[in-house]
Structure formats: structure tokens, C-alpha cells
Amino acid sequence: MSANTLFDKVWDSHTISSLGDGFSLLQVDRNFIHDLSGARALQALAEQGRAVMHPDLTFACPDHTTSTALDASHSGERYAKCVDPLRDLAHKQGVRFFEIGAHGFGIIHVIGPELGLTLPGSLIVCGDSHTSTHGGLGALAWGIGASEVAHVLATGAIIQQKPKRLRVRFDGQLQTGVTAKDLILYLIGRDGVAAGNGYAVEYAGPVVRSFSIEQRMTLCNLSIEMGAKIGMVAPDATTYAYLAGREYAPKDANWDAALAHWQSLPSDAAATFDLERSVDACQIRPQVTWGTSPEQVIAIDGHIPDPSAQPDPEKRRAYAAALDYMGLTAGAGLQGTKIDQVFIGSCTNGRLSDLREAAGVLQGQKVAAHVRAWVVPGSVDVKRAAEAEGLDRLFTEAGFEWRNPGCSLCVGANGEVVAAGKRCMSTSNRNFVGRQGTDSRTHLASPIMAAAAAIRGEITDVRAMMEA
Amino acid sequence: MQPFTKLSAVAAPLMRANIDTDLIIPMGRYLMAERADMHRFAFEVLRYLPDGSENPQFVLNKPAFRDAQILISGANFGCGSSRESAVWALHGLGIRCIITPGFGNIFYNNCFQSGLLPIVLDEATVEHLAKLAASGNGGPFEIDLEQQKITAPDGQSHAFAVQPQRRTQLLQGLDDIGVTLRKSADIKNHRAADEKARPWIYI
User: Fold this and answer.
1) Rounded CA gap, A321 and A313, in Å?
2) Which of A140, A161, B127, B157 has a CA 20 to 30 Å removed from the CA of A224?
3) Which residues of A touch B20 (CB under 8 A)?
4) Structural domain total, chain A
5) Helices assigned H by DSSP within A268-400
6) Do residues A87 and A147 both lie within one domain?
7) In 3-state terms, chain A is what percent helix, strand and coil (to 5)?
């Protein structure tokens, strides 16, 4: 038998038929749907008079447009347009619906793994580009459009062109104050936002092996920010330990059979990739974006690049426009840049370990008086677990707002936005123009860098606070 | 779905890289606008000035390009969010074809769902076509999907690639679901075998 990659093994075993030119019809194991594309897709299906083929493999959760305010009434125009149709049509079609505020509710890319719905070697789609997150468990997962969601609902299958294979190795050791978020931001900054276009990425190497599942998910989450729809990490003992006992994970004899299957998934030693990249993790310092694209990122002690020094005219234009939008100066550092808001949360960094790490920075200090700082746990279960260990009190006593779960300020679809001209240090995934609200300014960073910025009231090097 | 066979139209050059789908359609608009109205907000940030009036500098507001049905753009067009409303917005604006050195992959797939033809050409050719388009006096671009060929106003032709099933569906205006359902037996057989091989997937 020829040597295969993790990606190829999962892809091939899900191929129903080949459609020519590298396109395949693939079986879908999990279809996660939400209140934007999911609601629209269910409506489209209803209009076509079609039924959901596998309601048992479809999971609905309204994460995008729901308020994260503790006193939210969860009613109004947005709910009527997005949440209610998702709930009504899910119930009508026999699709599991995770109700707002109940166990199981949260950001889809947080709840899938924590409920044990996301499994190694499974094929997962969702109408959301950060579906790559599930690859942290060795799933083959990617984001699709609303029409593709409808297609999966109606057929249980998806049409897709087979991407090429890219392996990124992280060697060496992480320095203090450097997280999975910094690794992937660094990679995007080094190789660019289109570097992974047309590839499925496998993250490998000793740093990734040493990572927890939550860290692996942060890596995979940002794959789309370098153009790759798919990011994966081969399952190992860490993966199996994470899954054991989770609500929907296999049990008893099924567990044994599943485990044997999962252990056959990692890329064979002789497997080849179309492209190999490597990163020396020792070289990476905490990263912060300065511009309006995730590739516009520097180390906390670095300098914002000068547009006029860029040989590529398109880059010159893009850099100058980004500096203008962000209100920053070429050649300057980011340290000391005053911020107005802090957002800790999202499918990138809204998990329990993220909240623990951020809380660890606080050390009894207070959020700067001019800063509005939010913690938005990724799910109801994350929130409850954090509260059980007292993280909520650490945050609220420091002056953070402790909120309900949802996508919130990452995408602003629920009305929670950063005001025009305001600057937000954010653990989310996109710093696009207007992403967090019209004319809002976003700096992407890790949870500990965000927590440090909240305390200091400005962008700061968390390492100084950790060594203190 | 509207079939795509041949197109003879003005092309508008929008030569910047990494145009993300948040820029094509902001979240607030995606959220509340109906699909048929989405085009009103396409490129909203670029198309309109803060006072709501048209930005005369934006290419699609210029008299020569108001009726453009082809967009020529920089690399990584449609990167970012998976929102299909980005395609709906452009399609509603009358855009039927986008030519670029590369697409965000989710956006690329979404194009086919609305009968919009995404064409990838090498960077030098795209630059050349953009210059021809910008000069605005060479007449229309001709796009022939059957022949997989663009004829530029300078008379030169450029071949482009498109996957055969995608091409057929565009030519006939067929959506994916109908085509896939013809393979229902294959899908069922694959599922039945999988239920035996991986029972833990089925909960």
C-alpha cells in the first residue's frame, strides 16, 4: 500500500465518486448549521420542497446573531430574521438545536469538539470559514457557502475539488509569553494571506505534538487566514484523552473500534506533501497585527513597516491604506498605543485554557479606567467550567465584563460592535476594514496579550508582566 | 439558475489584492438585507462616501464602467468569510464574470451557485487585461464559456480552465443539488457501507 497523508486518508475514505478534474462527491459526517448561512439554507430547502436527508448528522446552533449581554431578552428583528427560522426549521426537520443559554450552546467551533461531535477522521462542513478549527482533532473540516449548506442538507454530500497538501512543521520550543495564536499569526505574516490557497494544511512537528487540543484548534482555526480552507493535526494520545467520556463521543465497544481506526489516520512516514514549510518556534515573539489584514503583523517589539520601502506597488498601496485606517505611523512600534476596548473570546481563543491564561495575567490588577474589556466564553459549558474554578470573579474583580457565549465582537453580527475610530485589542481572527464595526480598528493578539493590554490601557509586552 | 454561455461586456479594473468578503458585503448588510437587495450594498465602503453619496473615484461609479459585467481584480479575491451574500451582491450588481490571478476558495465555489463565472489567469495576463479595460476605448471583452476563451478588445484571445461539471452546469443553468441527486444510489451505498465500518459516527 502506498504511503498516504492524514488528509488523503480521510478524503479518500469519504469519496463517493470522482467528478473529473480532481473534483469529488464526498460524504459528510457532520453538518453544523448556524443562524446566518444555516437559516438561509434551511429556508432555501423548504422553498424547494426538499427535506434534510440526515437530520441526525445535522446540528444547529444560533451563535452569530445572539446577544451576549447577561440581561438580553433574545428577541427583536435579528432574532425574527435569523434565530427563529433556524430554530423552527430545525425542529420541523428533526435537527438537533442547541438552545440559547442551555448546555451545549455556544460557538459552533467550540461546542462541536467539547460535545464530542467532532471526531478524528470525520468530514465536517459548516457555513463558516473557521470550520477549519475542527481539524485540531484530526477531522477534515472546511467552511462552505449557504448554497453548499443547502446541498449538504439535501444530499448528505458535498462537491469539492481536492486541494494539494501542505505540511507546516513547528520546531524548537516556545518562548515564555508565546502562544499558539502567536505561532499562526507569525506564519501568516511570514508567508502571506494567500500562502495556503489551494492547500489542505497539516500542522506537525514537536511544538504541535506538545500542544493541547485547544492550542491545536487555535492553529487550525486561522488556516483560512492564510488562504487554506483546511487545517489538520494528526490525532494522538492527547486527542484520545480529550475525547474520552465526552457526551457524543463513542463509548464501550464503539470506542475501541473508533480508537483503532483513529490510530491508522496519521500521515505515513513516507507520505509526501506538495509543499513543506517549517518554522523555528524559538524565534517567535508575541505577535500583534498593525493593519487590516492578518498578514500585517509584527512582533510586539518590532516596527511597523514603511509602505514606501515595499518593492511591490500593490503592497505599498495596501500598507499605506492600512496605516491610514488604523491611525498608525510607519516605522513606529506598537507598544504604548492606547486602546479603547479589549475582546477576549471567539472560536479562535474563547476556550477554557484561553480564559485561564488570560486570567493568569491579571494578578489582582485592574483594567485601565478608559478601557472597556469583555470576556465572552466560547460556550455555556466553557462559561460554567470557568465559573466553577472562579475565573469569572478574577475577571470581574479586575473590571472585565463577564458575558454570555457567542461570536460577539469577532464579527459584530449580533449588534455588539466597536465604535468608529475606537481601537480594540482582540483575540479574534480578522482585522479587516469594518470587521468589528464600521471604522473600528482591530489589533489581533493572544489572550494573554489582550489581558495585558486591558490592564495597561495600551498595547504592551505581556512578557514584562509575566517576569515581574 | 441563470445559464452562462457567452458574454460581451465592459470590464471594470479593480486592481487591488486580497479583497475580502467583508469589503464586498459588510456583516450588517448581509444580516438584514434580502438576497435581492444585497447589490445595493456591494462594495459599500468603497462605493459611497461617508455622507451616503457615490464616491466618484470608485471604478464602478465611473460612467465608462457603470454597466460593467466583468470585474478584473488583484489576487486572492473573495478571501475571508464564507458569506455567499458576497456573490449575491456582485451578481445583483450585474457582475457575471470575475478575472483574477486567484480567488479565496470558498468564494470561488460560491460563484458557481449563482451562475457567476470565476476565471483565474496568470498575473501578467490579468495586469494586461486590466490595462486594456482601464483605457476604456477598446470595446467590450468577449467571454465564451463553451470555447473557454476570453477575447480582449485588442483582439488577443486567452484560454481559461474550468472543471467540466462546473462548465456544464453553468452552460445549462443547473444547480448542484439536482445534479447530485442523480447519484442518490451511490450516496446511499457509500453511507450504508460506512455505517457498518464506522458505527460511532451515527448517533
Assistant:
1) 12
2) B127
3) 293, 430, 432
4) 2
5) 313-326, 346-349, 352-362, 380-388, 391-398
6) yes
7) 40, 20, 40
| Residue A147 in contact with partner chain B when CB distance is under 8 A | yes
User: What is the average pLDDT across A231-247?
Assistant: 98
Answer yes or no: do B163 and A20 touch at CB < 8 A.
Answer: yes
> Domain boundary residue among A223, A247, A275?
A275
Of A217, A244, A275, which residue constitutes the final position of a domain?
A275
Cβ pair A23:B165 closer than 8 A: yes
Chain A window 156-185: which residues touch B at a Cβ cutoff of 8 Å?
Answer: 156-157, 159-161, 163
Please tell me if residue A229 touches chain B, with a CB cutoff of 8 Å: yes
A-B Cβ pairs (cutoff 8 Å, strict): 178
Residue A117 is predicted with a pLDDT of 98
Residue A316 — left, alpha, or beta (φ > 0 → left; ψ -120 to 50 → alpha)?
Answer: alpha
pLDDT, tens digit, for every residue of A142-197? 999 999 999 999 999 999 999 999 999 999 999 999 999 999 999 999 999 999 99
Q: How far apart are CA A277 and CA A170, in angstroms?
A: 9
Pick from A23, A193, A229: CB nearest B105: A229
A158 and A251 both lie in a single domain:
yes
Q: Cα–chain-centroid distance for residue A323?
A: 26
Tell me: do A236 and A385 sit in the same domain.
Answer: no
Chain A partners within 8 Å of B104 (Cβ): 197, 227
Interface ipTM: 0.94
Together in a domain, B110 and B13? yes
CATH of the domain at A72: 3.30.499.10
